Amino acid sequence: MNNYLRGSEWRKWDLHVHTPVDHEWINRPDLSSEENKKQFAKQYISFALQQNLSVLGIVDHNFCNNLDDSLLPYIKKEAENNHITILPGFEITAREGSGIHLLILFPENTDISRIKSVVDQCFSPGETLIPNNGNIPVSNKTIDEIKEIIDEANLDSIFIFAHADRENGVLNPDTIRGTRRVQEWHKDFINITQISKKIFEYPENTFMYKVIHGIDTNYKRNMTYINASDCRTINPSDAAEGRYYLGQKFVWIKADPTFEGLKQIIYEPEDRVSFEEPELLKRVNENKTKFIKSLKINQIAGYDERHGIWFKNIDIPFNPGLVAIIGNRGSGKSAIVDILGLCGNSHQNNDFSFLRKDRFLNKGLAKNFDASLEWFDGSIIKKNLFEESDLASPERVRYLPQSFFEKLTNEIEEREFPKTLENIVFSHLPEEQKLGRSSFQELIKFKQETIEKEIKLILDEIDQLNEKIIDLEKKQHPDYKKELKEKLVLKQKELEELEKNKPKEVKNPAVDTTISEEQKKYYEDLKQLKEKIKEIEDEIHKNRETLNNLMLEQEELEQLSKNLKLEKQRIERFKDENKHKFEKFGLKIEEIINIKIDTRKLEQIIKEKNEQIKAIKELLLSDSEIGEMEIEEEEKARLKKESLIVRKNEINIQIQKINDKLSEPEKRYQEYLEKLKKWQMDKNAILGNESKTDTIEWLKKQIRFIDSELDSRLNKLREQRIEKAIKIYEKKNELVEIYKQFKKAVDDKIASHREILSDYEIIIEAALNINNEFINKFLSFINQKLKGSFCGKEEGEALLKEKLNDIDVNLKDNIVNFLKDVINLLEVDHREPFKEKDEKEKRRYIFEQVKELKNFYNYLFSLEYIEPIYELKLGSKSISQLSPGEKGALLIVFYLMLDKDNIPLIIDQPEENLDNESIYKILTKFIRLAKQRRQLIMVTHNPNLAIVGDAEQIIFVNIDKKNGNKFSFESGSIENPVINKHASNILEGTLKAFDIRRLKYFKH
Residue 79 burial (CB < 10 Å; 0-12/13-18/19+)? Predict the structure, then answer.
């Protein structure tokens, strides 16, 4: 089909060259014989090869006197053998002004006799075109007349202003001036100008600078500028100022080395012409492992083709720029990019559309085919098409299969895409801001370490508050108050019964004057002993209370001691872990951290408390407890002597001995006193006090608390909990600020493309967001079978989603309101049937609906479900508000503009989710930008992506289903006529879309 399968490539072109036919050739060789002409042609092309020239425009002045003199046939033949293109033509001096020099080039296969014919018509009949005296005649025709002669001859041609800023150049003031010069400059059929310098070498404010850059409005027009040698020798030693050797001056052109390829530079010089080595070639040379050179696919040895021919001896070369793969549906487009993805170890192999189990992998068909991917460094990756990507190894290509693209478009709000944004942000961070971290996750973990510690302290406080709140919430329930009241009634009845059963009074026999002195003494002794018992019991009670307080104080002191030790260990651990970091800066951590923790006074107090506890415990030891102790008898004797319990028992024995000596009346009186004492103790136990559980006074206090204090106390604790949650929220906003700092480089990158983006405002916003797990986790705590706002699985989920949709979590007041709303929804039934009910009927109790209530509260008020993320937005619209077309366009622009990776980017049919307006306005510009830094391979049906995006290579693929599913392809550039026809037939749209770049399509 053609020899340029890799499409438009950068090559060196010299479009103004002469041969010894020209009168000014230096040291003209002897060309009198056929052999000499052939020999010179060999020398000429050999030198062109040395100069790495691919295209020569041979334009001898006035062409030749006669065709026998012309060297074109010889040079052309030699050039063809060496893959150099010769564009035949001539240089001519038109009669305008003092004679404007023009170069006129023709298609490579133009019959030179036809060229000779048009040249002859540009001069007076019989005039010698190249006289021996060197005085080359000026044409008697104007530029327009020369053009008319060529058109009438039905010859395709390209006119070029020769050496425009030098002698006989259209922009040289000595050639032509004023209005006439402006008129000639604006000839619409002359769109290429040869200049003597590179366009960036002209000083500012000079006439040529102003013309080239459109500053001088008289000369402002679309014009393609080139350099060329205007050579007069192929011997560098013969060259002189103004007389250059072949290829000494040239221009880089990205096109097929053909006449049609040359036409492309007329319409897109900024992308097709370069005065220095093109950046693409530099990038390829510097990064050969990141550019695909070719893909080979073949059957394995022994495959009998019973399941189809499919891929046989396929060898597809790839251009390092933009490659568009086109073809009808089912023609194998996705097959090629899937195979590229497989060989390039794409991690998206689950999203392949051709190499999948229900298609080419079905029944092991793919096992019969091997592929090898060659890179520009010569390395080759071989894969059997049944293999899978190695997810443990890095990707060599970034492949966006069609299904992956659709999935990303549909699920862009999911957590995976924010992770992608994080990776993009990290890739744009200056190296010094990465702090030696290899990923965004590592960096943010490092930066937020202190914040997380502060949050943990707040969480501990919230946990304690939740315990108190849950206790009060349970006390709010009517059943709790009802239970208290019922207990109070029972206690009061118990007291009434006790009052009824108060021991009947027995008179004291001691007041009887008839008793003996001995009896009186017994009574007096009993009285004294009982008073001692009372004193001892009071002392025992007092010591027990003291012991309780001491034990509590001891526990608090022990906790303080432990916490101090832990804090000391934490500081020591911090010093050990960070010692080397301080040393890196010449610092001694001991000089920076010098904290004194002196626990001696604390330990002394603990020791004193322990001694006090020991002393009191000894006072409260019983006789049996002392007897069981393994200590010296002397020590036992001491303990018994000091023990209040032992003393009480000893006095009780004395009392019993006296009681045994009393008369019956006296015994009855003593029994009465004991019963009365017990009765009073029982009464005191029932009445109790406000701090003694389940007594009348305690129950009354609890009921009073519920009636007058509980709600305000609960509200106060809830407010404190909200305040703690907001402190966490503020800490999370500190993380957002870190996220914002990180994305500055990306913001700058987007801003640098603001002119292209225009009103298409792409924003990466750092903000807080409720994660996707929140709804499920929240509802997992709720018993949705019970009455309440969240009753019913679907209804409860819908209500929660509705609440979430109504809040912007980046506003503090919204978070406060949301947390309060959740509590309200749990305490008040907001379902439709209950809206008109009274407060009592709508009232619900949280602990009845929520499982693991403390864990639920800790989760809800920890705000762990609110996290900083990056969000891709289009203006004020978030992703969820965009149409599928807008989402698709935004995604592709995102990848093309911000994905900093320079490995090949392969996209399969992105237009499936796009609208043409978006593509035409924005994407083609970013495709052009992206291909300037990475190889871009794209399957497409869209003319804007392929043509306006100026694909360097178009690969037309086909699968012949009637011939064993045989795959075939044709490849080349846009300007290639055969490829051009395929493009216009296959790509969606009409020729109207193609006319944007006129010469890119032939209207068949």
Answer: buried
pLDDT tens for each residue of 589-616: 888 888 888 888 989 999 999 999 999 8
Say what the alpha-carbon torsion angle 986, 992, 993, 997 is, to the nearest 10 degrees.
110
Q: 211, exposed or middle or buried, with CB in 10 Å at 0-12, 13-18, 19+?
A: buried
Give pLDDT, residue 262.
95
C-beta neighbour count of 568 within 10 angstroms:
13
Distances (CA, A) of 99 to 128, 140, 173, 179, 516: 18, 10, 12, 16, 168
Q: Which amino acid is at 821?
A: D
10 Å CB burial of residue 240 (0-12, 13-18, 19+) is: exposed
Compute φ and ψ for 207, nearest 5 degrees: -60, -45
pLDDT score, position 415: 58
Q: Which of 647, 614, 616, 621 is closest to 636 using CA atoms?
A: 621
860-910 tens-digit pLDDT: 999 999 999 888 888 888 877 777 767 777 777 887 888 888 999 999 887
> Distance (Å, rounded) from C-alpha 626 to C-alpha 616?
14
The SS3 call for residue 876 is coil
- Contact 861/462 with Cβ under 8 angstroms? yes
Distance of CA 615 to the CA centre of its chain: 69
Instruction: Give the span between the Cα atoms of 955 and 1000, in whole angstroms.
Output: 15
Single-letter amino acid code for the residue at 796: G
Long-range contacts of 759-762 (CB under 8 A, 24+ apart): 760/874, 760/893, 760/921, 760/922, 761/874, 761/875, 762/872, 762/873, 762/874, 762/890, 762/893, 762/894, 762/897
